[in-house]
Amino acid sequence: MKPLSLRVLRLFEEMGKDRLDLHVLFEAAGNEPAARQSVLDAIDELTRADMLSACGGDFYALTEIGKGLVAQF
Fold first, then answer.
1. 26, 42, 43, 49: which could join 5 in a potential S-S bond, CB 3.0 to 4.6 Å?
2. How many domains does the chain have?
3. Which residues pair with 20 in a beta bridge?
4. pLDDT in tens, the chain (73 residues)
5. How far apart are alpha carbons 50 and 48 in whole angstroms?
């Protein structure tokens, strides 16, 4: 797993939430357009690995697998 993907997962723990808006997740990399694309790539990786699920409206939620990994931090 890429370091940015781990950073995205850590945001859920830092915010104390199981569900976050895409704009909050962008904080994992900063405001540069290329960095935001990297966050989208990380979200895609986490979704394919069944650690995040899309909830609609730019929201993503931790799955049980994602919660288990976050609990290990």
1. 42
2. 1
3. 60
4. 889 999 999 999 999 999 999 989 998 887 788 888 999 999 999 999 999 999 988 999 999 999 998 888 7
5. 5
Quote the domain boundaries for residue 44: 3-71
Cα angle 16-17-19, degrees, rounded to a multiple of 5: 165
Q: 30: closest CA among 45, 8, 63?
A: 8
State the DSSP code for 24.
H
Nearest to 48 by CA among 40, 37, 56, 36: 40
Residue 73 to residue 7: CA distance in whole angstroms? 11
Here the CATH number for the domain that contains residue 48 is: 1.10.10.10
